[in-house]
Amino acid sequence: MIQNVTLNNGVSMPMLGLGVWKVSDEEAERVVTDAISKGYRAIDTAAAYNNEEGVGRGIAKSGVNRDEIFVTTKIWNADQGYEQALAAFDVSRRKLNIDVVDLLLIHWPVKGKYQDTWKALEEIYSKGHARAIGVSNFHQHHLDDIAAVSSLTPAVNQVEYHPLLTQEPLRAYCEAKGIRMTAWSPLMQGNLDVPVLKDIAAKHGKSPAQVVLRWDIQNGVIAIPKTTTSSRLVENSQVFDFELSAEEMQQISALNQNKRFGSDPDNFNF
Question: Which residue in 49, 114, 161, 173 is the catalytic one?
Answer without folding.
Answer: 49
